[in-house]
């Protein structure tokens, strides 16, 4: 279990670095899928199989497909990669990297300042437990999430619609 | 019958509301019917009430009717209560009857003017406010009517608001009466602070309480009386707050008639008569009332003698006649003051309405030196006007003015004030002089302008009725020396039950009274004769006097109303205007503008962070997160 | 390799979160920004799951499901916005849509 965790962690970090440095959108998306799949493995290794499955189905499946659809609709070609090269200069990385590093140090300090190290045993918490918790303790949250999804649906429909005036132009 | 009392003030208010709400949609006949009708019914009701009151006097010679409690704050609960006694009955009768005649007259006078319904709405409100003032049972309600009268005078003086001068005159009237009103309000506060009530009548009223609690001549009594006097001076146009009254002639002539005869200026006289106990407790203030009245009647008489504008002559004569009333009040001759108020209402309304006819006939010409010979062109108007002027001048034996003025002078003499008597007598001479100067210049001599409009029935009827009243109105009170016929005084005395000493003018003084009467007759006749001599026969003499250097200076001084306007302009108006100009940019405001400026600077600084670039915002959020986490971690 | 502890899991989540943050701040292309945001959301979800499995309760996973829901809604709206942006400005440069500057 431990080995699986560390290998997948390495894969996740490396593929994520690739995501934020690629120039081609589709390449970046593929690395992101790799990162998400590795994350699913981490979840599995931590004893959360239900969430691991959801990660694969919803994140790596549905959400990434949505991205790909959009990329295909926009039909970005070589010109886009060219532009990315102009936009993505190494020296631009410096400021954000410093900021992220400071944040990282702070988080690390906060995490390790606690002292005692607890070992995660990886006892699986199954889908049944999750489901019971979800529909008993967090029922209100589920309802709110459904409303949020509805709002997202309506918002996406409204924003994605073509205006009539624009159609006349094009 | 007396239960209908509440209708008297309510009807004009109803007329006002109807005219304000739907007046513009009514025809002129409809507006006139409502405007005149409401006052007419009110007059009929007050006549009925008056008849009932006199034929079967209610217990205590007073009747009061509470409609509802106005407000209730602790023990202070003034009601909408109307109180009818001899004093308020007389005032109500005069106001409604004379007001009705003026309204009737206005239907024709204002026929060619715009704002017909607005005019009648204001007039109704004016009469309604005055009736509220008169019938009020407590000083708060009286003050409501008092302020309503002030408001209506402002609205009506500035009725032709398109001319800025009229607006200015209206503002002046409003501002100057406000000075008096402030004093009066302070007086009310003082009374309430010490007596815990503002009801006037009854055992718990201020009159009875003041009588029992305050010593004669005590500081409180003097302060209260002086403050109330301030209010009365402002409203009644007495020195030193008289300057608004001549300018108030900017309004339509019926308005002047209403202000001078029936409403507004007599409110001050009424207030003093109503609170007579306070003045009797403060002899110094009461003497001041007499003194102010005397000075005012003389000063205003001199100014009236020099004016050219017909209405301004009448305005100054009003100031002067109100001065007589104050003089009477000042010597404690309450019923004499009210007697003069009544006769004055008749003949002053008559004079103003007659002047209105002349002004309309000559196409808004008001300068008497451009008139002349109107006797032939306007026969009825001239006759009634001469009757009015004769009453004003106190023409012996046949006019009402003679009896009332004679009564005042006799009372002044009996009160052992020979100096005031002499000035009053001089004022009578001036009155005769200026009133017949007006008559002789405007109605006699050769015609100088052409009459374009003759009065109709609606103008003639009020003139005739008022002329009749100006003659017979004096017969309800004859001098003591002539026999025992003083129904008016006897009736009036019931309104002043707490008066310390009622003078019954003993029969032993009959000889003295007859001599004084003889003097008054002589003065009046001499005045009229002099006017005849100077202004009709030997005008050269007047021109000679007026042309001399002293004459020119005096004429100019008197013409300008003894320079009060000039003085107030220098002392009050110009310093304020100067301070306003210096402080044009508002020094206090500078501090607040400084704060505003600092905030604006920050606004510009923070505007720079508003780049419109999403990633900069993201940086901001991330930076904030870093700082907050740092604070959590390091704390 | 030592056994997996809660600290290790949380540090992994923090690293991923920082990488996502760098991505958001560096990239001008709006699609890359959206992807970086997905990475950040995912990292926070990981922190929940780590904590949940540490204490052996289902609450961490429930929170992850909520985050998942939110991410789905966010991506739907965000991608619709991408389409709008591209239609209006013919570019995916977020700095092109900077008309709301003060």
Structure, explained:
The complex is a heterotrimer of chains A (170), B (635) and C (102). Chain A is mostly helical. Helices cover 79% and strands 0% of the residues of chain A. Chain A has helices spanning 2-21, 25-45, 49-74, 78-87, 94-112, 127-136, 139-160, 164-169. In chain A, helix 2 (25-45) runs antiparallel to helix 3 and helix 6 (127-136) crosses helix 7. Chain B has 27 helices and 2 strands. The model of chain B has no long low-confidence stretch (mean pLDDT 82). In chain B, 73% of the residues lie in helices and 2% in strands. Chain B is globular and about 115 Å long. Chain B is mainly α and 635 residues long. Chain B has helices at residues 7-22, 28-55, 86-109, 116-135, 139-157, 164-195, 206-213, 219-236, 244-247, 253-262, 265-274, 276-281, 283-306, 310-330, 334-361, 374-377, 379-393, 400-414, 418-443, 457-472, 487-493, 510-537, 539-547, 549-559, 564-582, 587-609, 614-634, and strands spanning 62-69, 79-85. Among the domains of chain B are: 334-537, no CATH class; 547-584, no CATH class; 586-634. Chain C has 3 helices and no strands. In chain C, helix 1 packs antiparallel against helix 2 and helix 2 (30-55) runs antiparallel to helix 3.
Summarize the entry for a quick read.
The complex is a heterotrimer of chains A (about 170), B (about 625) and C (about 100). Helix content of chain B is about 75%, strand content about 0%.
